[in-house]
TrEMBL record:
Gene3D superfamilies cross-referenced by the UniProt entry: Jelly Rolls
Name recorded for this polypeptide: Quercetin 2,3-dioxygenase
A matching Pfam family: Cupin_2
InterPro entries recorded: Cupin_2, QDO-like, RmlC-like_jellyroll, RmlC_Cupin_sf
Organism: Streptomyces cremeus
Domain called Cupin type-2: residue spans: 60-120
Lineage: Bacteria, Bacillati, Actinomycetota, Actinomycetes, Kitasatosporales
Length: 185
């Protein structure tokens, strides 16, 4: 049995807003959102961890690169559980790297490092954790994309209106880099 809570983000959530409450969430039953072609499921966020970290999964089909972006105050972890994901990273001195990650592989992106990723196989999945002094950014996914009630990938990609990208940096520590080019591949 899974308990539902009302939160400031959703009328029904499996995640309690009260950080003093232990809880359990069955596979896939966290707060879900669609963004681009992906399904993002949040299992723990800022409200539960006093803004110290978040924990989420991103599942997606083989597809286009997720736009280059940077977090000024947030470190991000990529742990691959299914499929294959190509992680693109540029450090603060401009050195670019890319790495194909497969199940069990781990990637770490420090704050202020530009990065992007691309699902390289159908049904790829990333476990993500983000932490930093600026708080957490997990509610970015449903704010830029669309909250999702059903399990599964979106039938059609959820592409945000261009103006939505501009409102995200102050609120969620995600700044998109529209004209960024990857020189690796």
């Amino acid at each position: 049995m899974t308990i539902e809570y009302a939160t400031r983000y959703r009328t029904a959530s499996r995640i309690p807003a009260d950080p003093t409450k232990p809880y359990f969430i069955e596979k896939g039953e966290g707060d879900r959102a669609h963004l681009f072609g992906d399904l993002i499921t949040v299992y723990a966020g800022g409200e539960q961890t006093e803004n110290t970290f978040n924990f989420f999964t991103v599942e997606g089909p083989k597809g286009d690169i997720i736009p280059a972006h940077v977090h000024a105050d947030t470190h991000e972890v990529f742990y691959i559980t299914q499929g294959a994901v190509r992680l693109f990273v540029e450090d603060t001195e401009g050195v670019q790297q890319e790495k194909l990650l497969t199940p069990g592989d781990f990637g770490f992106v420090p704050k202020n490092c530009k990065h992007a990723y691309r699902m390289e196989r159908e049904h790829s999945q990333v476990v993500g954790v983000a932490a930093g002094p600026g708080g957490t950014f997990e509610r970015f996914f449903e704010t830029l994309g669309a909250p999702a009630d059903a399990l599964g990938l979106p039938r059609e990609p959820v592409i945000p209106e261009p103006h939505k990208f501009g409102s995200v940096p102050e609120q969620f520590d995600v700044r998109f880099l529209r004209d960024h080019e990857w020189r690796t591949r």
